[in-house]
Amino acid sequence: MWAFINDKWIQAEDATIPVGDLAIQRGYAVFDFFRTAQGVPLFVNDHLERLVRSAKALRLPVKYSTDELKEIIRELLQKNNLLSSGIRITVTGGVSPDTYTPAEPGIIITQQELVMKGQEDFQKGLHLITHEYVRDLPAIKTINYIMGIWLQQKARIAGADDVLYVKNGYISELPRSNIFVVSYGGSLSTPASNILEGITRKQVLHLSKSLLPAMECDISMNDLIKSSEVFVTSTTKRIIPVLTVNGQKIGEGKPGPVTKTLYNSFLELEQKEIAKGW
Amino acid sequence: MWAFINDKWIQAEDATIPVGDLAIQRGYAVFDFFRTAQGVPLFVNDHLERLVRSAKALRLPVKYSTDELKEIIRELLQKNNLLSSGIRITVTGGVSPDTYTPAEPGIIITQQELVMKGQEDFQKGLHLITHEYVRDLPAIKTINYIMGIWLQQKARIAGADDVLYVKNGYISELPRSNIFVVSYGGSLSTPASNILEGITRKQVLHLSKSLLPAMECDISMNDLIKSSEVFVTSTTKRIIPVLTVNGQKIGEGKPGPVTKTLYNSFLELEQKEIAKGW
Fold this sequence. Notes:
- 2 copies of one chain form a homodimer.
- By secondary structure, the first copy, chain A, is an alpha+beta fold.
- Chain A has 2 domains: about 1-115, 2-Layer Sandwich (D-amino Acid Aminotransferase, Chain A, domain 1); about 120-275, D-amino Acid Aminotransferase, subunit A, domain 2 (D-amino Acid Aminotransferase, Chain A, domain 2), CATH 3.20.10.10.
- Chain A has 9 helices and 16 strands.
- Chain A starts with a strand and ends with a helix.
- The model of chain A has no long low-confidence stretch (mean pLDDT about 95).
- The interface between A and B is large, with 42 and 42 residues.
- Strand 3 of chain A pairs antiparallel with strand 3 (about 15-20) of chain B, so a sheet runs across the interface.
């Protein structure tokens, strides 16, 4: 498997970065991650746009234009010939002489096989617990997942699959997913603030337009618990129903009709993207 | 310069870690940093103890005992023959197959030249601004310094040297230093919570015992502004007076007598440590 590290093509097993890079010294780096299906990178413009936005927010200039990045991705796809995959682009703080001030950014582009969750995982759904927390600089896709990883044990002990961040009674997101709530009144909502704006989230908001009223707003724990359906979205999960939160059943505690409809619409959208090619 | 990376001695310029390591993928790593003076690592037991504590808190088993780490440090000192230096030990989340769950931890031990701040920097003191923030998991020395680095620009624009974190009116710490406050009543205090327990902080609390009443407690912004002296402590700074906070003068706006006395006591303590050897 080929990787592109600091301007060089290299075999993935030899892909390393200097220990002096601020990513390792200070956790200072941003990244983005997208899928390829049948060799087509999905929603790649959205992902590259967000990468550039994240890098800019951390004041890390990306030395390649979006078009140049696409050329590198094209070459990566040709070299590795991997049809279903995840591609990750990381922009690091670079090797800093004082181990603190960002220097010339490093760039890491890797591809890996990716087995997607299927119908079975959709049916199984997710059980969540909550944790009082808001991420730092949530709109920026930094590499900081310490809290999410650290909370894995708490989730495991509670018999849950993942953690939902809540602050002062309002929900925001999961460590690697956005969350949506369907009210009994038939409207869809998703938190407006303290979140990373997911690309699947954006597509779901778009798809929902022809189906039901949808809005980005503040959502309380009370709204969540009283809702008819809850689901999460992410690049690797697409759409997965949430069946319980802190042991409390959401709606009937099984995948609901709105979630199913949106899931099917999303699969169709994916097929259209694949058919379009790039 | 030699470095010790994942069980191998290697030249520092060749020191790299795999891009799959969770330090790079998810910012999941802890570290500690200590000085050597005249070839003697200062307060090394305190630093190694804190490293082990940090690693344990992030559930990263350190494969070397403290004694084994000391042997590696001894070898590092012999190989590099660098008398005044900083030594950094990083324990990383390792290369994780799912890029999320901690695997076998990586270990990185590097040494670098270190020019210490001197009398002139002490006289110049520091000008701080405040920022509403508490670090995640503050007691653990993770590699996450995103906020501190990100705030450098805010400090620069304000003409300040560094940032003091404040939450709901209470001060905690700087990104890389602890803070102490001397009241007009002649007592010393330092925040008790939401901090990394610095090794210099610990030594200063110890040194203060024979000099003035000292306590770890909650300190409000109001306490800070009304105080007679403020100083910060860190491994690389030792003790440096704070002359202004958000443009407001502390005491007479120059290094105060308690700060000076503690600074001299600390220099003496350092000399004793050096004389003891290890």
